[in-house]
Write a structure and sequence with these properties.
Blueprint (H helix, E strand, L loop, with lengths): L1 E6 L3 H12 L4 E5 L25 H14 L3 E4 L2 E7 L2 E6 L3 E9 L3 E3 L15 E2 L2 H4 L7 E5 L3 H11 L4 E5 L9 H9 L3 E4 L2 E7 L6 E6 L5 E5 L2 E4 L3 E3 L29 E3 L11 H19 L2
Parallel strand pairs: 1-2, 1-6, 2-3, 6-17, 8-15, 9-10, 9-15, 10-11
Antiparallel strand pairs: 4-5, 5-6, 7-16, 12-13, 13-14
The structure holds NADP nicotinamide-adenine-dinucleotide phosphate.
The site of NADP nicotinamide-adenine-dinucleotide phosphate has 17 residues, from α4.
Amino acid sequence: MYDVIIIGSGPAGLAAAIYGQRAGLSLLVMEKQPMSGGQIINTYDVDNYPGLQGIGGFDLAMKFRAHADALGASFVTEEVRTVETSGDVRYVVTDQNRYETKTVVLATGAVHRKLGVPGEDALSGMGVSYCATCDGAFFRGKDVAVIGGGDVALEDALFLSRTSSKVWLIHRRDEFRGAKILQDRVRETENIEILWDTTVEEIGGESQVESLLLKNKKTGAETPLSVQGVFIAVGILPDSALLEGIAKLDEGGYVCAGEDGCTSCPGIFAAGDVRTKQLRQIVTAASDGANAITSVQSYLAR
Ligand code: NAP
Protein backbone atom coordinates (compact mmCIF):
# COMPACT_ATOMS: atom_id res chain seq x y z
CA MET A 1 0.00 0.00 0.00
CA TYR A 2 1.55 3.28 -1.14
CA ASP A 3 1.07 6.56 0.69
CA VAL A 4 0.51 8.26 -2.65
CA ILE A 5 0.34 7.35 -6.31
CA ILE A 6 1.01 10.24 -8.66
CA ILE A 7 -0.59 9.85 -12.07
CA GLY A 8 1.31 11.84 -14.67
CA SER A 9 4.93 12.90 -14.97
CA GLY A 10 4.77 16.44 -16.29
CA PRO A 11 6.02 19.34 -14.14
CA ALA A 12 3.15 18.91 -11.63
CA GLY A 13 3.69 15.16 -11.22
CA LEU A 14 7.48 15.48 -11.03
CA ALA A 15 7.29 18.29 -8.48
CA ALA A 16 4.89 16.12 -6.45
CA ALA A 17 7.40 13.25 -6.67
CA ILE A 18 10.23 15.50 -5.46
CA TYR A 19 8.19 16.87 -2.55
CA GLY A 20 6.80 13.42 -1.75
CA GLN A 21 10.26 11.84 -1.59
CA ARG A 22 11.56 14.65 0.59
CA ALA A 23 8.56 14.15 2.89
CA GLY A 24 9.45 10.46 3.26
CA LEU A 25 6.25 9.19 1.65
CA SER A 26 6.13 5.84 -0.12
CA LEU A 27 5.15 6.82 -3.63
CA LEU A 28 4.88 5.66 -7.19
CA VAL A 29 4.70 7.81 -10.31
CA MET A 30 2.67 6.38 -13.19
CA GLU A 31 3.46 7.58 -16.68
CA LYS A 32 1.74 6.65 -19.92
CA GLN A 33 4.89 6.82 -22.01
CA PRO A 34 8.50 6.10 -21.04
CA MET A 35 9.31 9.80 -21.22
CA SER A 36 8.71 12.27 -18.41
CA GLY A 37 7.93 15.93 -18.90
CA GLY A 38 4.42 16.07 -20.34
CA GLN A 39 3.68 18.96 -22.67
CA ILE A 40 7.04 20.66 -22.11
CA ILE A 41 9.07 18.04 -23.95
CA ASN A 42 7.58 19.55 -27.11
CA THR A 43 8.35 23.13 -26.07
CA TYR A 44 11.31 24.45 -28.00
CA ASP A 45 12.31 27.25 -25.69
CA VAL A 46 11.07 27.99 -22.16
CA ASP A 47 11.67 31.65 -21.48
CA ASN A 48 9.64 32.20 -18.33
CA TYR A 49 10.72 29.58 -15.81
CA PRO A 50 12.45 31.64 -13.11
CA GLY A 51 16.22 31.30 -13.04
CA LEU A 52 16.47 29.16 -16.17
CA GLN A 53 15.82 31.67 -18.92
CA GLY A 54 15.94 30.19 -22.40
CA ILE A 55 16.20 26.56 -21.33
CA GLY A 56 14.77 24.03 -23.78
CA GLY A 57 11.56 22.32 -22.69
CA PHE A 58 13.10 18.89 -23.12
CA ASP A 59 16.16 19.86 -21.03
CA LEU A 60 13.97 21.27 -18.27
CA ALA A 61 11.89 18.08 -18.23
CA MET A 62 15.08 16.00 -17.93
CA LYS A 63 16.24 18.19 -15.03
CA PHE A 64 12.93 17.69 -13.21
CA ARG A 65 13.11 13.95 -13.81
CA ALA A 66 16.77 13.72 -12.73
CA HIS A 67 15.89 15.57 -9.53
CA ALA A 68 13.08 13.10 -8.75
CA ASP A 69 15.37 10.15 -9.60
CA ALA A 70 18.16 11.49 -7.37
CA LEU A 71 15.73 11.53 -4.46
CA GLY A 72 14.76 7.91 -5.17
CA ALA A 73 11.30 8.27 -6.72
CA SER A 74 9.95 5.15 -8.45
CA PHE A 75 8.34 5.34 -11.88
CA VAL A 76 6.33 2.80 -13.87
CA THR A 77 5.24 3.11 -17.47
CA GLU A 78 1.68 1.83 -17.46
CA GLU A 79 -1.47 3.57 -18.66
CA VAL A 80 -3.97 4.00 -15.85
CA ARG A 81 -7.39 2.71 -16.87
CA THR A 82 -9.42 3.49 -13.75
CA VAL A 83 -9.14 4.95 -10.28
CA GLU A 84 -11.42 3.32 -7.70
CA THR A 85 -12.11 4.11 -4.06
CA SER A 86 -13.25 1.84 -1.28
CA GLY A 87 -13.26 3.25 2.23
CA ASP A 88 -9.79 4.63 2.91
CA VAL A 89 -8.16 2.68 0.08
CA ARG A 90 -7.74 3.93 -3.49
CA TYR A 91 -7.01 1.54 -6.34
CA VAL A 92 -5.09 2.61 -9.42
CA VAL A 93 -5.80 0.06 -12.12
CA THR A 94 -3.73 -0.55 -15.25
CA ASP A 95 -3.84 -3.39 -17.79
CA GLN A 96 -1.00 -5.05 -15.87
CA ASN A 97 -1.60 -4.25 -12.20
CA ARG A 98 -4.01 -3.10 -9.52
CA TYR A 99 -2.10 -0.79 -7.18
CA GLU A 100 -3.30 0.04 -3.65
CA THR A 101 -2.67 3.46 -2.23
CA LYS A 102 -3.92 5.74 0.53
CA THR A 103 -4.02 8.79 -1.73
CA VAL A 104 -3.84 9.75 -5.39
CA VAL A 105 -2.48 12.91 -7.00
CA LEU A 106 -3.94 13.32 -10.48
CA ALA A 107 -1.43 15.28 -12.56
CA THR A 108 -2.49 14.20 -16.04
CA GLY A 109 -2.51 17.68 -17.54
CA ALA A 110 -4.47 19.02 -20.44
CA VAL A 111 -3.99 19.14 -24.15
CA HIS A 112 -4.62 22.05 -26.45
CA ARG A 113 -7.25 21.26 -29.03
CA LYS A 114 -5.65 21.17 -32.45
CA LEU A 115 -6.93 22.73 -35.64
CA GLY A 116 -6.14 19.58 -37.57
CA VAL A 117 -4.85 21.28 -40.71
CA PRO A 118 -1.83 20.44 -42.88
CA GLY A 119 1.39 22.00 -41.56
CA GLU A 120 0.18 22.27 -37.95
CA ASP A 121 2.14 19.32 -36.56
CA ALA A 122 5.18 19.74 -38.81
CA LEU A 123 5.64 23.41 -37.80
CA SER A 124 4.71 23.02 -34.13
CA GLY A 125 7.37 24.89 -32.16
CA MET A 126 8.57 26.44 -35.44
CA GLY A 127 6.05 29.26 -35.44
CA VAL A 128 2.97 27.23 -34.50
CA SER A 129 2.26 27.79 -30.82
CA TYR A 130 -0.57 27.03 -28.41
CA CYS A 131 0.59 29.47 -25.70
CA ALA A 132 0.99 33.20 -26.29
CA THR A 133 2.31 33.90 -22.79
CA CYS A 134 4.98 31.20 -23.30
CA ASP A 135 6.07 32.01 -26.85
CA GLY A 136 4.85 35.55 -27.63
CA ALA A 137 8.24 37.12 -26.91
CA PHE A 138 9.78 35.22 -29.83
CA PHE A 139 7.55 37.17 -32.23
CA ARG A 140 8.52 40.70 -31.23
CA GLY A 141 8.11 43.03 -34.22
CA LYS A 142 6.67 40.26 -36.38
CA ASP A 143 3.27 39.58 -37.92
CA VAL A 144 1.27 36.85 -36.21
CA ALA A 145 -2.16 35.27 -36.36
CA VAL A 146 -4.38 34.09 -33.52
CA ILE A 147 -7.02 31.48 -34.31
CA GLY A 148 -10.19 31.25 -32.23
CA GLY A 149 -12.96 33.37 -30.79
CA GLY A 150 -13.02 32.50 -27.08
CA ASP A 151 -11.49 34.29 -24.07
CA VAL A 152 -8.09 32.75 -24.68
CA ALA A 153 -7.95 33.89 -28.32
CA LEU A 154 -8.98 37.44 -27.36
CA GLU A 155 -6.50 37.58 -24.47
CA ASP A 156 -3.76 36.15 -26.68
CA ALA A 157 -4.44 38.73 -29.39
CA LEU A 158 -4.25 41.57 -26.84
CA PHE A 159 -1.10 40.13 -25.27
CA LEU A 160 0.62 39.74 -28.65
CA SER A 161 -0.45 43.20 -29.84
CA ARG A 162 1.93 44.72 -27.30
CA THR A 163 5.03 43.20 -28.90
CA SER A 164 4.15 41.98 -32.37
CA SER A 165 3.73 44.51 -35.17
CA LYS A 166 0.46 43.09 -36.50
CA VAL A 167 -2.00 40.57 -35.10
CA TRP A 168 -4.59 38.94 -37.36
CA LEU A 169 -7.42 37.50 -35.26
CA ILE A 170 -9.06 34.78 -37.31
CA HIS A 171 -12.44 33.42 -36.26
CA ARG A 172 -14.69 30.92 -37.99
CA ARG A 173 -17.92 32.80 -37.17
CA ASP A 174 -19.05 36.44 -37.22
CA GLU A 175 -19.27 36.85 -33.46
CA PHE A 176 -16.92 36.09 -30.61
CA ARG A 177 -17.61 33.68 -27.80
CA GLY A 178 -15.24 35.51 -25.43
CA ALA A 179 -16.09 38.18 -22.84
CA LYS A 180 -17.54 41.49 -24.05
CA ILE A 181 -14.88 43.54 -22.28
CA LEU A 182 -12.15 41.64 -24.13
CA GLN A 183 -14.02 42.06 -27.42
CA ASP A 184 -14.13 45.82 -26.85
CA ARG A 185 -10.44 45.98 -26.07
CA VAL A 186 -9.61 43.94 -29.15
CA ARG A 187 -11.68 46.26 -31.38
CA GLU A 188 -9.98 49.32 -29.86
CA THR A 189 -6.47 47.97 -30.47
CA GLU A 190 -5.02 49.44 -33.64
CA ASN A 191 -2.71 46.65 -34.67
CA ILE A 192 -5.30 43.87 -34.28
CA GLU A 193 -7.28 43.10 -37.43
CA ILE A 194 -10.22 40.70 -37.21
CA LEU A 195 -11.00 38.30 -40.03
CA TRP A 196 -14.56 37.00 -39.55
CA ASP A 197 -16.07 33.85 -41.06
CA THR A 198 -12.62 32.65 -41.90
CA THR A 199 -10.99 29.27 -41.45
CA VAL A 200 -7.38 28.23 -41.76
CA GLU A 201 -7.01 25.53 -44.39
CA GLU A 202 -3.25 25.10 -44.25
CA ILE A 203 -0.17 26.40 -42.44
CA GLY A 204 2.74 26.86 -44.83
CA GLY A 205 6.49 27.23 -44.44
CA GLU A 206 9.74 25.33 -44.96
CA SER A 207 11.38 25.25 -41.53
CA GLN A 208 9.36 28.12 -39.99
CA VAL A 209 5.80 29.35 -40.43
CA GLU A 210 5.66 31.66 -43.45
CA SER A 211 1.99 31.80 -44.42
CA LEU A 212 -1.57 30.63 -43.84
CA LEU A 213 -4.06 29.59 -46.46
CA LEU A 214 -7.37 31.16 -45.44
CA LYS A 215 -10.88 30.40 -46.63
CA ASN A 216 -13.81 32.78 -46.36
CA LYS A 217 -16.75 30.63 -45.33
CA LYS A 218 -19.32 32.88 -46.98
CA THR A 219 -17.70 33.32 -50.39
CA GLY A 220 -15.55 30.19 -50.47
CA ALA A 221 -12.61 32.35 -51.60
CA GLU A 222 -9.14 31.15 -50.59
CA THR A 223 -6.35 33.66 -49.95
CA PRO A 224 -2.82 33.38 -48.56
CA LEU A 225 -1.75 35.47 -45.56
CA SER A 226 1.89 36.09 -44.75
CA VAL A 227 2.68 35.61 -41.02
CA GLN A 228 5.69 34.43 -39.04
CA GLY A 229 3.73 32.95 -36.17
CA VAL A 230 0.34 31.39 -35.55
CA PHE A 231 -1.21 31.00 -32.11
CA ILE A 232 -3.92 28.38 -32.00
CA ALA A 233 -6.47 29.08 -29.25
CA VAL A 234 -9.40 26.83 -30.09
CA GLY A 235 -9.93 25.33 -26.64
CA ILE A 236 -8.29 23.09 -24.08
CA LEU A 237 -9.13 19.51 -23.25
CA PRO A 238 -8.24 18.49 -19.69
CA ASP A 239 -7.25 14.85 -19.24
CA SER A 240 -9.65 14.28 -16.36
CA ALA A 241 -11.62 11.22 -17.49
CA LEU A 242 -10.15 9.10 -14.65
CA LEU A 243 -12.04 11.17 -12.07
CA GLU A 244 -15.39 11.23 -13.88
CA GLY A 245 -18.01 10.07 -11.37
CA ILE A 246 -15.45 10.20 -8.53
CA ALA A 247 -14.72 13.91 -8.09
CA LYS A 248 -16.49 17.05 -9.22
CA LEU A 249 -15.49 18.38 -12.65
CA ASP A 250 -16.48 21.80 -14.00
CA GLU A 251 -18.35 22.33 -17.27
CA GLY A 252 -15.04 22.40 -19.19
CA GLY A 253 -14.01 19.05 -17.70
CA TYR A 254 -11.40 20.47 -15.29
CA VAL A 255 -11.16 18.85 -11.87
CA CYS A 256 -12.61 21.29 -9.34
CA ALA A 257 -9.78 21.94 -6.90
CA GLY A 258 -8.19 24.98 -5.32
CA GLU A 259 -4.53 25.75 -4.73
CA ASP A 260 -4.39 22.98 -2.11
CA GLY A 261 -5.31 20.42 -4.78
CA CYS A 262 -8.17 19.00 -2.69
CA THR A 263 -10.95 17.57 -4.86
CA SER A 264 -14.49 16.74 -3.80
CA CYS A 265 -13.27 13.17 -3.09
CA PRO A 266 -11.20 12.88 0.12
CA GLY A 267 -7.76 11.38 -0.53
CA ILE A 268 -7.75 12.34 -4.20
CA PHE A 269 -5.87 15.48 -5.19
CA ALA A 270 -5.41 17.30 -8.49
CA ALA A 271 -2.33 19.22 -9.58
CA GLY A 272 -1.32 21.12 -12.70
CA ASP A 273 -3.24 21.87 -15.87
CA VAL A 274 -6.00 19.32 -15.12
CA ARG A 275 -7.42 21.39 -12.25
CA THR A 276 -9.47 24.58 -12.25
CA LYS A 277 -7.01 27.47 -12.09
CA GLN A 278 -6.16 30.86 -13.51
CA LEU A 279 -2.83 30.24 -15.21
CA ARG A 280 -1.58 27.02 -16.79
CA GLN A 281 2.21 27.32 -16.92
CA ILE A 282 5.21 25.21 -15.87
CA VAL A 283 5.80 27.34 -12.80
CA THR A 284 2.21 27.00 -11.58
CA ALA A 285 2.16 23.27 -12.35
CA ALA A 286 5.30 22.75 -10.28
CA SER A 287 3.79 24.78 -7.48
CA ASP A 288 0.64 22.64 -7.63
CA GLY A 289 2.68 19.45 -7.23
CA ALA A 290 4.24 20.83 -4.05
CA ASN A 291 0.87 21.97 -2.69
CA ALA A 292 -0.81 18.64 -3.46
CA ILE A 293 1.84 16.74 -1.48
CA THR A 294 1.37 19.12 1.45
CA SER A 295 -2.35 18.26 1.32
CA VAL A 296 -1.53 14.54 1.08
CA GLN A 297 0.54 14.85 4.27
CA SER A 298 -2.30 16.61 6.08
CA TYR A 299 -4.73 13.93 4.89
CA LEU A 300 -2.46 11.08 6.03
CA ALA A 301 -1.97 12.73 9.43
CA ARG A 302 -5.68 13.36 10.01
P1 NAP B 1 -13.49 28.24 -25.79
O1 NAP B 1 -14.19 29.25 -24.97
O2 NAP B 1 -14.06 26.88 -25.91
O3 NAP B 1 -13.34 28.87 -27.25
C1 NAP B 1 -12.77 28.16 -28.28
C2 NAP B 1 -12.88 28.99 -29.53
O4 NAP B 1 -12.24 28.28 -30.57
C3 NAP B 1 -14.32 29.26 -29.96
O5 NAP B 1 -14.46 30.58 -30.43
C4 NAP B 1 -14.52 28.27 -31.10
O6 NAP B 1 -15.34 28.76 -32.13
C5 NAP B 1 -13.13 28.14 -31.66
N1 NAP B 1 -12.90 26.84 -32.25
C6 NAP B 1 -13.06 25.61 -31.68
N2 NAP B 1 -12.71 24.64 -32.54
C7 NAP B 1 -12.31 25.27 -33.66
C8 NAP B 1 -11.83 24.82 -34.91
N3 NAP B 1 -11.67 23.53 -35.19
N4 NAP B 1 -11.51 25.74 -35.84
C9 NAP B 1 -11.66 27.06 -35.61
N5 NAP B 1 -12.11 27.55 -34.44
C10 NAP B 1 -12.42 26.66 -33.48
O7 NAP B 1 -11.98 28.00 -25.33
P2 NAP B 1 -10.88 28.97 -24.66
O8 NAP B 1 -10.91 30.32 -25.26
O9 NAP B 1 -9.62 28.18 -24.68
O10 NAP B 1 -11.35 29.10 -23.15
C11 NAP B 1 -11.48 27.91 -22.37
C12 NAP B 1 -12.25 28.24 -21.09
O11 NAP B 1 -11.46 29.06 -20.25
C13 NAP B 1 -13.53 29.01 -21.39
O12 NAP B 1 -14.53 28.59 -20.50
C14 NAP B 1 -13.14 30.43 -21.09
O13 NAP B 1 -14.23 31.24 -20.72
C15 NAP B 1 -12.17 30.23 -19.93
N6 NAP B 1 -11.25 31.37 -19.83
C16 NAP B 1 -11.59 32.42 -19.06
C17 NAP B 1 -10.77 33.52 -18.98
C18 NAP B 1 -11.14 34.66 -18.15
O14 NAP B 1 -12.18 34.61 -17.51
N7 NAP B 1 -10.34 35.70 -18.11
C19 NAP B 1 -9.57 33.55 -19.67
C20 NAP B 1 -9.24 32.48 -20.45
C21 NAP B 1 -10.09 31.39 -20.53
P3 NAP B 1 -16.92 28.94 -31.91
O15 NAP B 1 -17.08 30.17 -31.10
O16 NAP B 1 -17.44 29.06 -33.30
O17 NAP B 1 -17.39 27.69 -31.23
